[in-house]
Amino acid sequence: MSENMDDPDQALARRRAQYLAGLLWHTGAFVIISVFFVAIDLIGNRSLNWSFWTVAAWAFALAFHALAYLIDGSNLEERKTRQYLRSRKNG
Asked: ∠ CA 10-27-69 to the nearest 5 degrees?
């Protein structure tokens, strides 16, 4: 299978697919390890102490990972570049 890596649409699609795969792995690891942390905390102390803060911090980081995926998907950088070039040409 021959792939034309010079095609910008294909390169963008590949980058988005790789980023989504990374986001899904991050989410899966978050869920599995968070359940493990909460279970350890509940078994040991019968209450949520340290695991809550660990999971909350990781959830915050995961939210930014998802936000970065969504912003990249809106082609924000490309749109702003074109907007800047148009304003420089007209102004």
From this structure: 35
